[in-house]
Amino acid sequence: MRFSFLVGLVLVIAFASPLFACVESEMVEVDGYYWVSVCDSSSCGGHWQYGVIGYYSSCDDAGGSGGGGTSGGGTTGTSGVTALQNTYTNNDCGPVPIAAQILDENGYDQTGMQNYFGFADWKDGASGFVLVDPPLVPAMDSMYACMGNQLPALADPGNGAGYRVPGAHGSTDPCSSHTQGESVDFSTRDSSGNHSCQLWNQLAACAHAAGLYVEPWALIKQQGVIHMHVTTHQDANDPSQYGDACANP
Amino acid sequence: MRWTHAVSFALLVTAATAYAAPAPCHLDRTVALAPYNHPDNATIEEWRDSRLAVEKLTDCAPASIDPQSRKAFFDVVRSEFATSHTAEIARWRKLYPKPHDGVDAAIGIFQTDIRRFMSGLVDRNDASSKDVILRYGAARAIAALGPAVKHDVLSMLGTGGQFYGLNHRYHPQLEAVQVLGLWIDPANKEFSLAEKTDFTRMLVALLPHVQPGVNVYEDRYFQSALQALAHSDSLDAETALASWMDRQTDHGSFLYHEAARSLNAVRARRGA
Predict the structure, then answer these.
(1) How far apart are the C-alpha atoms of B205 and A34, rounded to whole Å?
(2) I want to staple B199 with a disulfide (CB 3.0 to 4.6 A). Which of A143, A175, A243, B180 is the partner?
(3) Which of A30, A61, A224 shows the shortest C-beta gap to B84?
(4) Helix, coil or strand: residue A50
(5) What's the pLDDT band for B236 if we cut at 50, 70, 90?
(6) CA A199 from centre of chain
(7) Chain center to CA of B20
(8) Has the ipTM of the complex gone over 0.85?
(9) Calpha distance B179→A33 (Å, rounded)
(10) B254-270 vs B235-247: helix crossing angle, rounded to 10
(11) How far off is chain B from A176, nearest CA to CA, in Å?
(12) Which residues of A touch B82 (CB under 8 A)?
């Protein structure tokens, strides 16, 4: 299949090279079904046909491959598990999860994390598998109770705010703690949809109480997009380190 | 006389307040678009200030946004998705070599935020920004333009679309198939029964081709088609979904789960 070969070639180049070493942009074609309209004098119909549906530049935005690419490889069955394991090896993201750690929707729905985030939100793009770091689940239980039996939604549902496929967000850190299922990016918009520094502070306190590391407010603000990143990957930090969102809005 | 004084004072206070503090739902065009004018060497601070300004606008009710800000917002959307963030990400990485999450996560959230906001913002009066909405909008924003863009949406289901957004995460075809879902919904009164039947038929005709694991894009596309069918109340959709599920052997795949959710939704609408 032309798609597999082209994208495979691009991914091999991307994974074998240092980040941002994309020297020559290549337009990568993606195959899929597209609608062919057929009209006669009285009406219009059509049919689905398989072929090139679109393209992207292999060098755009540091060569990530979440949308049109093949991150995660096959998305179901044993071949899908192996393909996902290969993304860890190819990106040098250890430890490579064993098959039992790689969860499809049925497996995810038994972790306890589904009580807070649906599989569609937790997964990354079209990858049909996810990881959940077991200690993250009781931490979410604790945060949920601390927040008055509620938690905000993920900041970027279905796009790596929960689980993240190694290299699929091929930019800052292909082996982000999200790739081990250890981190959560929360939206800090309140029930009316507005950004709320009070909510940020409350979430931070609850995450801290749950033993999680909270990405410092100063760093979040510097990015210009208000959200919250918490993780089991690092030891819990002191409130003086993660800061006060309302004191410096 | 005293009443006149009081009114004058009130007007003065109002005017002074308006002068001192611009309406919170105004987007400063210069700040918002500054980094996009020179993305290869825009500073971290320029990107930060631009995003903070736009994010603040997304806190506003659409009706409270002035026309200039509305236009500036659509220009930001166009610029955001036409701009490569490679240089910014590289600069960030140099500045923060051990990032907790990295600016790419923030960029992804920003792109999600502006598309979500656009979905609540767009109405029929945005015909002048139709090109931006069709090119970069999420399904709900496109659907809000209504029958006037029916042929545009059908052509988006065809070939030649360009991926856009961080990590090529979006494609017009993915949105178009979901627009059909919004348009076949019984709550939608803008399309005739015959048109809804045609749209449903198009979605149902895709189902025999749906199989998990062909490639990443296909999985997303099939998922979108299954989600679109969840809006239907037709027997054809119910039969097609049930038939597709009967043929599957992998009941753990997310497409299987998606189909099950859609089938339940269709049956609930049909009172089954």
Answers:
(1) 11
(2) B180
(3) A61
(4) strand
(5) very high
(6) 23
(7) 34
(8) no
(9) 17
(10) 150
(11) 7
(12) none
Instruction: Tell if the CB–CB gap between A61 and B205 is shorter than 8 Å.
Output: no
Cross-chain residue pair A224–B51, CB shorter than 8 Å: yes
pLDDT beyond 80 at B182:
yes
SS3 track for B83-140: CCCHHHHHHHHHHCCCCCCCHHHHHHHHHHHHHHHHHHHCCHHHHHHHHHHHHHCCHH
Longest dimension (CA), chain B: 85
The span from the CA of B48 to the CA of B110, in Å, is 11
Report how far apart, in Å, the C-alpha atoms of A138 and of each of A142, A149, A202 are: 6, 14, 18
Residue of B109, B206, B254 lying closest to A156 (CB–CB): B109
Nearest to A225 among B89, B106, B213 (CB): B106
Q: Do A76 and B212 touch (CB under 8 A)?
A: yes
Q: Which chain A residues are closer than 8 Å to B206 by Cβ?
A: 33, 48
Give the residue among A185, A212, A14, A237 at the shortest CA–CA distance from B101: A185
The stretches of B186-253 forming alpha helices (DSSP H) are 193-206, 216-229, 235-247
Distance from CA of B181 to the nearest CA of A (A): 16
Percent of chain B scored above 90 by pLDDT?
A: 70
Query: Using one digit for the tens of pLDDT, what is the confidence trace for A42-85?
Result: 777 899 999 888 888 766 654 444 455 434 444 556 678 898 99
Give the 3-state secondary structure of residue A177.
Answer: helix
* Residue that wins the pLDDT comparison between B21 and A97: A97
- Chain A residue with minimum CA distance to B250: A77
